[in-house]
Specification:
Shape: elongated
CATH architecture of the largest domain: Orthogonal Bundle
Helix content: over 70%
Oligomer: single chain
Largest sheet: none
Order of helices and strands: HHHHH
Number of strands: 0
Distance between the termini: 62 Å
Number of helices: 5
Structural class: mainly alpha
CATH topology of the largest domain: Arc Repressor Mutant, subunit A
Radius of gyration: 25 Å
């Protein structure tokens, strides 16, 4: 079913209407045998949906805040310093 969603996203990015005919054309162009029931379900489920808003939310959720990333890097650096110190103490005990 993901190829149907990709067809809808492709149509959306091309600023084309997401309707049964256009989805079918995209799938056929990709060499996929379209299933009319799946196309109807997709088009019906996307009716009234703001795809740009959904995509923006997905991007927002996928990207961790910069502060969290910085803290993770600092923890990794502290851990590697501790490991190095433990290794040196083992050598010179």
């Amino acid at each position: 079913m993901s190829e149907y969603a990709y067809a809808a996203l492709l149509l959306h990015s091309a600023k084309k209407e997401i309707n049964e005919e256009n989805v079918k054309k995209v799938l056929e162009a990709a060499g996929i045998q379209p299933d009319e029931a799946k196309i109807k379900a997709l088009v019906a489920s996307l009716e009234g949906v703001n795809i740009d808003e959904i995509l923006q939310q997905a991007v927002t959720l996928a990207a961790p805040p910069a502060q969290e990333k910085k803290e993770e890097e600092e923890k990794k650096e502290e851990k590697s310093l501790e490991e190095a110190a433990a290794g040196l103490s083992a050598l010179f005990g």
